[in-house]
Structures
1.
Amino acid sequence: MSNAPPRVGLTLGFVLCGLGATTGVSASVAQAPPTFGSSVEAVYVDAFVTRDGEPVLGLPASAFELRVGGAQQAVELVAVESLPLTALLVFDTSASVVGAKLTALRRASEAFLDGLRPEDELGLLSFSHEVRWQARPTRDRDAVRRALLACQASGGTALWDGLHAGLVLLPTRARSLVVVFTDGEDNMSWLEEAQVRAAARVSNAVIHVVGLRSGTEVDPAFFAKHGRGVEPDHVRAVRATAEVTGGRFWTAESPARLRAAFAAIVAAMNTRYVLRFEPSARSGPGWHPIQLRLRGVKGEVRARGGYFRGPIPSSSR
Amino acid sequence: MIRQARAVLGVLLVLAAFGVGAEPPFPYRELIRQYAAGERALALGELQGLSAEQVGKELEAVREEVARAGRCSSCPPAPEILPLRAAVMLHTDRDEMDRRPILVSGERAPTCGPPVQAGLAEAALGLLLVDAPGREFARRWYLAMALRSLGDICFDEGLRWTAAGLKKFAKDKELLLARGMLDEASVTLAPLRAPNAAALYPSEQEMVHDAMLDGRLRLTEAAGSFEDALAADPGFEEAALRLGRVRLRLNQQESAIRALASVLATSRDPRRLYLAHLFLGRAHEAAQRAPLAEREYQEALALDPRAQAAATALGHLRLMAGDPARAREIVDAALARAESHADDPFWEYSVGAGRQAEPLFEALRAEATR
């Protein structure tokens, strides 16, 4: 363990990039992935725009108004196709997933694999009570397929530890995605919801969670009063964590819907906007809330709610 | 003619009611003696032919005989009337079979009660409480039943066993510990979370609040059980460890630190030391003392380099300190070690004590078939 003081600079969600890559760009920036080690800081915000549930494509940078702490930022659009995606599947392989569920999950994963571009990387982590690398991020799709086939279901459910490991292990890149599959509630994690939420904030990964069960459960008395089911607390917890990053919770109650959810997640990543801005040098360490809205365009925009700049004061945890 | 037919029908109905035509049920006391003689499988099979009501009546008759024997010097002693330990274990074993029906997959999955056969076992057990060896047998039986319920995630059932046991053995430290573990584990499987007021309707908030209050109440009760166990035996390390963990979960960090420090000061058990460092790290982390937390997590990891919980804790601390590269290194190394299939003591912490039930039952069976 290093005893060096915490590095002042960028945490996940915050990358350093070369000066040359940032000059004279007003619209889409077709460039290599950001390089590290220069003195200019950049924040990348992965945003998803929908209108009536359908993705909205082709928006210019001027369609986005991004504020940090109330101050408007000059944003650039980075061409999504110029940034390879690093995705990590984080799959629940606890005992309850044994049999048909695991088979359905393997099949549904094919839809995700099919949606990736050749330059994208994909890895697989599994969690029961233990978190395991099944396949490190690779462009070799067959390696991931073999890893999926090798997954066995047994043991408890350390959902939070699994998700946390995914966030920590993803390379610090502008575009990264964590797709969690779970069929139940955490019962084995060391980490708690609040800690993983904090880790999600400092990560630049977009988190999507696919739940095999219904997102709501019907309590007759509650349904009679409110006309809807109650969202179980554990679903609320993972949904809220996904939403912190601009992702969402997907319900998949059948193998067909499971496949559709995986296909939609990967498709959405290819229809997102990557916004880039350089925060003020005066902005100190800690959490910086982002307000992002559309300007002159109808629709909804989904993105992370802010970014951390390290070192992180313990009081903000 | 009609009268004759009615008479025959009446006789047939009576015979059917008594199962005539099939093999007559084995005499209950004979089954117990078979079990005591080591014919366990046979006795368990034959017991199926007897209803709970029949067995209840038999046990009541035995109870009366035992009571009479206690009042007369020429009567046979209780063990000669019936080997009561064998009766207890016969019903216990039958209960074990009933609570784990065979699934289509061929596996046996546990179910939580209603424990009809266990109730009969407890009725027989009541007759053993007349002397010290019998009481000790009964104490261990209650403990085994409670631990089995813990392992089967049948917490309320387990709490009923500890309540029944503690009625008879009020200050038994092991039963107190088991009661605390059951309360603690029940909250672990339904974690406490602060309700997100903005996202919930008032009635939903109320439901979440109720769940939280129930969880806090159970943790408070668990803390009380561990304190009682420590009062019975101040050197009871497992109770001190668990008291520290529960105090931590109740956000009583300083009290948690005292309990955990006492474990670290006295214990030589690697598992307890690992967990005490781990929990102490969390207590310091919660109290915003990151350097102290890091030191404890490092101590835990040094004790068990293959443990994922300690690596996860340390990795998280480094991540939140703005050191994602080191966090990645720590977590990646822990995952690489997962190939060794090493068990992290933290995984066993909640319900792992359930594994102690079977050795206890085995010892009780051995005594019953001696």
2.
Amino acid sequence: MLAAGNRSTPDADVALEELCRTYWYPLYAYIRRQGHSREDAEDLAQSFFARFLQKNYLEKLRSEHGRFRAFLLASLKHFLANEWDRAHRQKRGGGVLPLSLDWQTADTRYQIDPPDNLTPDKLYDRAWAVTLLERVITRLRDENSASGNAALFDQLKPFLMVGRSDVPYAEAAARMATTEGAARVAVHRLRRRYRELLREEICQTLSDPAQAEEEMRALFGAFA
Amino acid sequence: MPDKCPKCSAVLPSGALEGLCPACLLRQGPETGPPPDGVPFQPPAVEEVARLFPQLEILGFIGKGGMGAVYKARQPALDRLVALKILPPQAAGGPAFAERFTREARALARLNHPNIVAVHEFGQAGDSPFFIMEYVDGLTLRQLEQAGRLSPGGALQIVPQICEALQSAHDQGIVHRDIKPENILIDKKGRVKIADFGIAKIIGGDAGSPAMTATRHALGTPHYMAPEQVEQPQTVDHRADIYSVGVVFYEMLTGQLPLGRFAPPSRKVEIDVRLDEVVLRALEREPELRYQQAGEVKTQIDTISSTPGQAGKSAKAVPELSSDRRVFARQALWSLVVGVLGCPFLNALHASEDATMTFGAFCLVLGLVFGIVSWRERLGRIVAITVMALGTVSLVLGLIFSLIFYELRFRAGEETRNRENEARMQILEHQQANRMALRGSHGTPEAGASHPAVRAIPPQQGTNVANHGRVYLVGAVRTPGPIELLADEKLTVAKAIVRAGGFTDFADRSRVRLTRKDADGKTNMETFIVNVGDVFEKGKVELDLDIRADDLISIPERLIRF
């Protein structure tokens, strides 16, 4: 949970850094889409994070109604607009350790992301959603692997994308080579766990868990 | 070419998410709600139905509900349209299903009423039970509601027809058990047709069976169910249907469900107030309090529709609010009564005047407040008016009297002043004499104790003076506290004429309170009234108290002023 918002504890710092580490790619994509070169984008993202982690930006989180996604983007815009010059001057000084982020992968990912005419904001939201889902799916896969169900997960994961009543259980049963009843149970469990994890991850970026549904809709809206 | 999601054709992120579509994933995210304990019913496809029912020409899928799926079909032999209802296969589970199904279906088939969807045939195809029923070309009440094509007036047309149909079914011992807008069809001519009679019983015959649970879940909305239907399904009788009709009626009138503490319909929409009573009685929690027959509801509604009524304002059939008001009105009356009776009572107990006044005022204000709150009750109104009238009368009287007294006092002023001067002279003389006496006979308080008859409190100007076994409170005034008297002492109290600004004060009574211990050691209190009119005279005993040792005497300061 965005208890990270409270800067007073070391735990909060760690949590915040963890959040930044998770969601930096959407920011990078946003900066690139703004028209900055790869090197500039790296510099910008890096110095933004440095400043972001250094300053207690999170105190202002409330103004974005506790949504970390919106808040991070607002902070970045603010940074790009006003603080770039200053940040540039001291970007490699300041005694701030850069976050170690995988720029190479980022650039590759940015390059191979499908070209379209998205606005930077929308691209940011999409990249955010994908990052978030990536985490959820990875966790889901890891959990299944841990219990020796990796293969099952691969078979059933497409059913995460269809409505409960539209799951072709017969097909699922055929894939699993089991009875329809067993397939129902397995699919149902997987879907339930997926929703739990999704909610959990989303709540990480919110100060109020009650906003989870709204955030989910907002992210879904980015794909509309 | 970027990959696209085959379902929603959103562009898939390359190399991420294992080929899953983020949009589709997110869409499934908010799907909350309890997981299904049973298996959701999948209506068979039209082709499959056609294969199962070779004798029918399946024309299309009409809809699906918790109780199965309905298809439009034609019986070529009879050349008529029918509705084919296929129940979920799980419904056929449980012991004795076949027997129960046959029994119930036969009973349904006997139902013959223009407002009930007729059952032509029933049976089991594959593992799914089915009914072939009269085809109704129209819309469900739900669809009409959603289309906004219902008015309160429409409800008055529809509900009596529902009641008539229910009455007819109830007469044959058949309870619908699932009356809701989805099951009420209105055909093109505006006729009501109730569908799915008794199906709930067929499906859920054995309460507690797995099929029952699943179906219950599928039924989804319990809003139309009578309370006893939820709590004790075994005890359900035809009065549960009457409750459901109440819900449907309420919803048709107001567009809302009667949930929690709901307002009577006439509070929400402009309708005849008398309808409130009908709706509310149908919605009684206890079956015994409801209408006992669906026909009664119809009769009531018909009566109301046929006689002109007063729309809008609700007067009587407003249960919860009016009962609150009634309580307030009663409180108002009680406040008034307590105030009126309590003040004299307190006075009789010799409570202080302040306390009595405060108590009285408090009661009256309380009565007024409660009266105004419950203004719409007759009782509340009466109390409020009484309090206001009392207030006005006392205000007017107070004004008149104070004017009169002002005049009197002014005139009395001259006279009294002379008299007072005289009195004061007497007091001074008296004190003088007293002092002499003290010095003479009892030089010290100890000496006083040895002569128990007299103990004096050191004389002060205007305080109290002891004289020959009598204590005179003269001219009198603030006592420094309770006056302690010894055995055989007597107390004489006189009240000086009280003056203020040249007028004689009409605070005409003074109280002397005597506290004494009786033989058992209990403390008793007595209060005596002393009148101002008893003007101080040397040696005159206005009040002769029999005072014993250890008695305490106190004089309320307020009442004796100088």
